[in-house]
Amino acid sequence: MDPNKPLILLTHELPQNWVGSLLDGYEVIVGNKNERGIDRGLIKYLERVSGILCLLDDPIPVEILDKSPNLKVVSNMAVGVDNIDVAACTKRGIPVGHTPGVLTEGTADLTLALLLSVCRELPQASADAREGRWSNWDPTGWLGKDLKDATVGIVGMGKIGTAVAERLVSFGARIIFTNRGQQPDKEKQLNATQVDLDELLLTSDIISLHVPLTDETHSLIDEAAFQKMKSSAILINAARGAVVNTNALIRALKEGQIRAAGLDVTNPEPLPPGHSLFDMENCLVTPHIGSATENTRRIMAEIALQNLDAGIKGLPLTHCVNPEVYD
Ligand code: DGY
């Protein structure tokens, strides 16, 4: 190890052709890809570490910051930063980087894929075809839900919520949405109506979640929320698992409080094999692949590496979640 070079810690290996020359000039240690967070074996390096590049399921709590007196930047390869104690970073003057924008379209595409698969029961239909339950063209077989004229409730009209709504408009769906601030421009642009959460839950045929995970949104969709939904409603979550209360969801799916769910994110994540959500025909689970396209992931890595490099050099990060550290 060269003590003259700044030391950086990548919690997970990244392909060399994504990294390119972005790490030239640094001493790099890389975590074990099968472990989350900072591997126990790497804790001893924290004292010297100038920058950490982490993934969305690597917790960066205050205890890690306490062990890292020379830390100049935490760079998350994700837009969501709920895995990082941002307030503690801010208190120490450490900028936190993230990767907004680049994954908007990919995540919106995946949301639509999930939504359409659940609406048209594709996993069940495909399994029936493969397993010998396709005897004839059945007029009443595999009847799905139309998107045309469906009311779709978008919870959180940020970048991804908007990209999902734009796609749905072209399917002929009617959009209603919630958002923290008023968004008359979005109402106009999407011929949509901004409503409160209760109205959205009561009137939507499909509900799609696009809020970040914060104290405010943790368990936003709980038992009481499911009780308000139509029994024919479909819930789609491509945001963060903990926005939905998992036990309440299981009950809602079992007891027919809602029709079905499509989940790209879960709580816990990953969902352990044998989990009851995997046993339910009316629940489709994918392993947090919203941003999983080659281009998107490569650009996310590039942005995260650029944020890391800027932070270590004392330059403002291009995408910083706590710019108040520069005040
Ligand atoms: C993010 O970046 O927060 C997404 O969840 C990744 O898919």
How would you describe this structure to a colleague?
By secondary structure, the chain is α/β, with parallel strands linked by helices. It folds into two domains: 7-101 and 294-326, NAD(P)-binding Rossmann-like Domain (Rossmann fold, 3-Layer(aba) Sandwich), CATH 3.40.50.720; 104-285, NAD(P)-binding Rossmann-like Domain (Rossmann fold), CATH 3.40.50. 30% of the residues lie in helices and 14% in strands. The strands form two sheets. A seven-stranded parallel beta sheet has the order 8-7-6-9-10-11-12, with helices on both faces. A five-stranded parallel beta sheet has the order 2-1-3-4-5. Helix 4 packs across helix 6. The chain is globular, with a radius of gyration of 22 Å. Bound molecules: (2R)-2,3-dihydroxypropanoic acid. (2R)-2,3-dihydroxypropanoic acid (DGY) binds at residues 56, 78-80, 103, 290-291.
Quick overview:
This protein is of the alpha/beta class and 327 residues long. The protein is built from 11 helices and 12 strands.
What brief labels describe this structure?
327 residues, alpha/beta, Rossmann fold, 11 helices, 12 strands, binds (2R)-2,3-dihydroxypropanoic acid
Characterize the biggest β-sheet: 7 strands, parallel
| Bound molecule types | (2R)-2,3-dihydroxypropanoic acid
Question: Any low-confidence stretches, pLDDT <50, length ≥5?
Answer: none
Question: Strands of the largest sheet, in order across it?
Answer: 8-7-6-9-10-11-12
Topology:
Layout: E1 7-10, H1 16-19, E2 27-30, E3 49-54, H2 62-66, E4 73-76, H3 86-91, E5 96-97, H4 104-119, H5 122-130, E6 151-155, H6 159-169, E7 174-178, H7 184-190, E8 193-194, H8 197-203, E9 206-209, H9 223-228, E10 234-237, H10 246-254, E11 260-263, E12 283-285, H11 294-312
Parallel strand pairs: 1-2, 1-3, 3-4, 4-5, 6-7, 6-9, 7-8, 9-10, 10-11, 11-12
Helix pairs in contact: 4-6
(2R)-2,3-dihydroxypropanoic acid (DGY) binds at residues 56, 78-80, 103, 290-291.
